[in-house]
Amino acid sequence: MTAPSDPEAALRSAHREAGQGPIRRITRMTLDHPLLFTISVVSTLIAAGLQLTIPLLLGRAVDQTQGLLERPDETAQGALLLTALTLLVVSILRGVFTMAQNYTAENLGHRVGYALRLAVYDKTQRLSFSFHDKSHSGDLVTLGILDLEGVRMYFSTAFIRTILLTVLIGVGAAVMVSIDPVLALVALCFAPFVAWRSSATQLRMRATWLELQDRLAVLTRVMEENLGGIRVVRAFAGFRHEMFKFDRASARAMQLAFHRVALRVRNSSAMTLSFFAAMGLVLWVGGGKVIAGSLTVGELTTFLTFMTILQMPVRQLGLMVNAFARAGTCGRRVFDLLDREVEIEDAPDAKPLEIGAGTLRFEDVHFAYPDAPESPILNGVSFEATRGETVGIVGPPGSGKSTLSHLIPRFYDVTDGTISIDGQDIRNVRLDDLRRAAAVVQQDSFLFTTTLENNIAYADPWATDTRIAGAAGSAQLHDYIIGLPEQYGTVVGERGVSLSGGQRQRLSIARTVMQRPNVLVFDDSTAAIDAATEARIRAAMEEEADSRVTLIVAHRLASLMHADRILFLDKGRVVEEGTHDELLAKGGRYAALHALQTRPEDDVIAEMEDAR
């Protein structure tokens, strides 16, 4: 049986019945595969029934053997042979149906896991930046692996096991009571203790598992941060400090793991002792009944075999309780993520974005991050930029420059005011259209672990080699690439660590240029590029500047002196506006920043000393 071929159906299945309990939602997802569900349940019932037949056949075989010893004849031999063949057939059929149950249950569980895996991945792709700002990637990876595994195993370890244990324990106990009620009570005296210890142990194991999962998540974060910043670690000789952090996190996880092992061993020993004690009592009481003639040796064998069969199901009651608890806990986390509202998505009546004159307009835009509404980042920003115009945005750290650039492609939504392109409120157009039309070259030049060609063509995987080379040329990266042994087929390392900072930024610029946006925003994306290379990039970009609006966010004034207009932001407000020469002539904040960046260092220090 193959995996589901309709990912959309899998996603709908995972998202259905939002707000319901996790166990109910998981169970409903299993019912989306009725054939597998039916085969698994029916196979479980048949396998359990066949397993309960085995003690009866063994008891009959013992009595027949004893009778054969007392009176050997062909009839008795034939009866014993028939019983032996029946036992063999029953055992084979039990194995076949058990195999069918295990296969179909695991198959169904993997299908549910497949649907949830798609749904979780789909959700994480659509959740807004504000969610990812507050969520650690290690926690999401843990949810996508360990929690999904807990949900996936629900059907085989909880649902099917419940059916199996109910049949084995319920019917098995009824059969023993029908043979001899007193001996049945003796035989089952271990069951309450084992069920209690097993359930209590598994619940404690579950609690410690959740804590262990948290400690392993911490360990994952430590390793992830270390590997991500390995160059910083090496540069500052932080090996011992990093080893101490990792050792401390690892030791905490190991300590809890040892505690779990001790807990499991102690309780397993106690349950095993109680079972063999009960078996000894059955032999003592049952032996007396055999001597008294009220019980046959075969019936005593039946009791002992039933006890052996029931030992594992009774011990698995705790595993079943744990499976339900784990599925409930893990399912709650998974469905909490799936049910989370997507803050940035298409409006119900979203329309295609129609580009005409290509005018970008901010009208009294206010913005505050959702978790800090009392601390606005932008306060009444208004400006307009037309096609072919380059607008520079500068200001002190925390003035809202990067936030402003992130509002244009709707990484966040404005708190108040309007951002429009050709008079169309960006909140009322399709998000895909908007992000194709408005692109941001971000400060973090993230690169995928793939070839240079694939990194550049990420926005258009089917682009021609000529377009890819042209984009790289505009970013002043083409000459470097063709000098590599594999040229555009060269694979860059994780996060582009095989490239320098300036090369990563240039590759990020090339990737964005490939998109051919109508609004192109450089968010301090040339900070690691030398002035000469930046000038060449700017000259190359001017060839296509007439076809789009260009915004340049920068701390270094040399990056935006050529802009048609410069906005100076401070505390989320536009406090100065004009060309480079006009702003210098005003002698205001921009002029002071220009003087700070261009005057000799000694003059600046002397002026600061005089100010003291």
From TrEMBL:
Signal sequence annotation: none
Residue spans crossing the bilayer: 35-58, 78-97, 158-176, 182-200
Matching InterPro entries: AAA+_ATPase, ABC1_TM_dom, ABC1_TM_sf, ABC_transporter-like_ATP-bd, ABC_transporter-like_CS, P-loop_NTPase, Type_1_exporter
Domain ABC transmembrane type-1: 39-326
Entry-linked SMART domains: AAA (SM00382)
The keyword DNA-binding is annotated on this UniProt entry: no
Membrane topology type: Multi-pass membrane protein
Keyword ATP-binding: yes
Subcellular location: Cell membrane
UniProtKB keywords: ATP-binding, Cell membrane, Membrane, Nucleotide-binding, Transmembrane, Transmembrane helix, Transport
Matching Pfam families: ABC_membrane, ABC_tran
Limits of the ABC transporter domain: 360-596
Chief location category: membrane
Gene Ontology cellular-component annotations: plasma membrane
Name of this chain's protein: ATP-binding cassette, subfamily B
Organism encoding this protein: Tranquillimonas rosea
